[in-house]
Amino acid sequence: MVVMTGAQAYVKALEKEGVDTIFGITGAAVIPICDELLNSQIRYIGGVHEQGSTHMADGYARASGRVGVCQVTSGPGATNIVTGIATAQLDSSPVVAFTGQVPKYMVGTDAFQEVDIIGITASITKHNTQVREAKEIPQAVKSAFFISNTGRKGAVVVDLPKDTQTDSSEMVFPDKINFRGYHLVSEPDIQEIEWAAQLLARAKKPVIMAGGGVISSGASSELIELAELLVSPVAHSLMGKGSIPSTHPLNLGLCGMHGRCEANYLVPEADVLLVVGARFSDRTTGSLSGFTTNAKIIHLDVDKSEIDKNVDSITRVVGDAKSSLRMIRERIIELKQGSKNNSEWFKKIHDFRAMSEGLKSNSPINVPDIIRAIRRAMPRESIVVTDVGQHQMWSALFYDVYDAGYFLTSGGLGTMGWGTPAAIGAKVAKPDTPVLNISGDGSFSMTENNLAIAVEENLPITVVILNNNMLGMVAQWLRLFYNHRYSAVNRSKRPDFVKLAESYDAVGIHGEEINQIETEIRRSIKNKQTTVIDIKIDPEENVLPMIPPGGGLKDILIG
Question: Is 162 a catalytic residue?
């Protein structure tokens, strides 16, 4: 035991967890902690808005696989992280947010900058807690990291009243945590593995659906090996992009509202559907009545609460995706039914893929070509982040990803403005890896002030803005389903993004031709300069395919 202040214990506890970076904004309620951080090697990256700092922590977590840490003050500092915390939680990203709070004796008095952040975040976190005594801080920090980064990963909030930071106490730093009520699933049920293996071994038209759980568990190799054993095509959710290389012959691509033809047509035809680390989101399934009518569904997930929540399954494998997929594959090999002749089933992939490749745009510089140009300009091992909107779906459809963890996006919450700060966080996690954010004018405008951090902290990122002076995705809905009656989507009175970038001492470029765009992206990476490339696109261009409201996977519009 050693006597120290709560702030000292907090910093030491973070160091023991291997924390190298904190994202956040200071304030009166965290001054003791910020003062103590001056004595630590932990890097503190001060933000311009707490939402952006939380997105940075999220991008850091997704790029590194480690916990992203955000630290903010009380009151508005705490409330400003809500969107970022909800984004991380819905996408199972390990983020821990520490919020300052008024002293304990002021809690409940409506003191200056007091909010009940525990009550506010109860429904959008995996766990949250308020520390009541200084001596509780080491345990609270250890518990937060353990809960956030185990099982189904997620967001945790720890509230720190100011007097718990300044009070001194004898501190004990636990090496292990035994958290009551929190039980991790170690191994899947052997009987469920057996049933899953037998169903897949006998399947004539198997399909695998890969979600974000494949990536977070590091199970891409196991997924690919099983798919190749079964000659099973693999579709993926938005969060599952990268779980199988885009160029793999068994990859069907994105499934769902803007899914590729081969994915949306083949999934409903499966006789056995293995869903791994995905939660049957409405954006992936479309209308459930048209999702899979005849398939026997095997659902594999580390989170038991997701199984049978939206879609009933016949076999339920609760466990880590990596070990579970390996066990299923090994059992199929033992059954000696792994080598299959699925030539007709495999041929259907090519037939439907031709439909996707046949989709053309009438625009002189169409977005799919821009996305492909970005891919050509980026090194193979580079991180691409997206904001939310039409550009996100174009990226999901046309940007080739070769390895897991190199495509980062906001899925469950669909948070516009996530991309730029998340890209900065990813750059902190992997400083030697090129990082590019594909954004839209609407999304970029929400958090463009974070360019200041990229420049000040020497974290060069590239931002490509697909600029249609519209809130493009909503405008597309209004075109297709509301007879072109545009309401509240016009964004023609936007600043000059090139001049805006230059005002932050970043590089600003007007992108006008495909070759020029490729050149400027390569230059930004070579020169290690934060660069914004503003590309004007046709405001009438649609993201296709698209499932109309109430439609099933096969109801996609392709023209």
Answer: yes
